[in-house]
Fold this sequence. Notes:
This protein is of the alpha+beta class. The protein has three domains: about 5-75, no CATH class; about 100-250, Helix Hairpins (Orthogonal Bundle); about 280-405, endopeptidase fold (from Nostoc punctiforme). The chain contains eleven helices and six strands. It has a six-stranded antiparallel sheet. The protein is elongated. The chain starts with a helix and ends in a 7-residue tail after the last strand. The model is unreliable at about 1-80 and about 170-175 (pLDDT under 50).
Amino acid sequence: MSRSSHRRDDRRAAREPREGEGLSFCAPTWQHPPGNRMLLAVNQLGGGVMRTGGRGLIMVAVSVVCAVTVLAAPGTAFATPSPPPSPSASVPAVTDEDLEAVRKKLDGLYRAAAVATDEYNEAEEKAKKQSAEIVRLARKIVRGQERLDDLRDRAGAAAAAQYRGGGLPPEAHLMLSDDPQEFLDGAGRVRQGEHATRGLLGELTRTQQDLEQYAADADAQWRKLEAGRKARARAQKKIEKQIEAAERLEAELAKEERERLARLEARAAREAQATWLSSGVLDEIRGEATAQGEKAVAYATAQIGKPYQWGAEGPEAYDCSGLTSQAWASAGRGIPRTSQAQWRQLERVDVEDMRPGDLVIYFGDASHVGMYVGDGSVVHAPRPGRAVTIAGAGSMPILGVVRPDPDTAA
């Protein structure tokens, strides 16, 4: 065999790898962009190496071609998946410090949702009052219109009676009358009729003015109702945005991490309660519940296990102030709907003087409330994703205590 034939066979061997050599994972040169000069240069280098006839060097050349192809064409899609990362490149474990940061972030999101929930509930309460006022005004308008129609009928009848009198002057009536006394009696009745007509017309005018005022008041209430509707819509968007962000954050955690997060939350609550109790405050709390307070506590504790739902007042779910307001309503005493209104409007008492049934208001913005049940504990509806439960009264920052029944002795 000639030397040229040997060279042709070597080139054929370089171009056509044998079955099983594992070279098919790299795309042929002609599949790459023609402008990839780096790839062409490496292919040329690979060709030179292949002509040496060494199989190990062939593998090296092909590997270099593939590596340069990946680097030179970052957007290119390949049919063969990338090799899995080595076991040593594992994702670092989430530390307690990381989870503590998540816990604080979640607390902030849920507190923001609680503030927005109070805004929604307050707008809802105003809407109820405004709707009731509109109904009341509508009834007054209906009654006033009926009165106005009656007055108009009577005024028309009086005018017709005067018209039938002919409009003659009194002297003519005296001359035409056979009996002067009859004339005088008739004149008296005419004066009474004129006086009554003037009174009727005055009442008609006042009724008309009242109707106009009722209509103006109803229009003002409608405007407030519409403003309240928009306020509720804004508050609802805030609530949903905060809850969605919190749920998204929790969803990023693995199951084991969520369990650790729950343990961190419980530990933080226990530590806060222990700090509160270490002040000796529980030794000074000796108040006893009133009869109404006992009923309110019984109602609230009977809801334990039911889910939190913003804006809910039962019976299937509650938010924090929905639970406390409904508990006291069941005891026969109405209180404001929101935790902020409860803080503003109910009588405040010292923590040392609180008794079962009193409401413990939390955080500086009064965005959360629980009901004191005794033994340093409250029953409350915590937040979305949680259920009505018993917690330490000092497990959250206490703003103050309010009493729904200050006029009742224990």
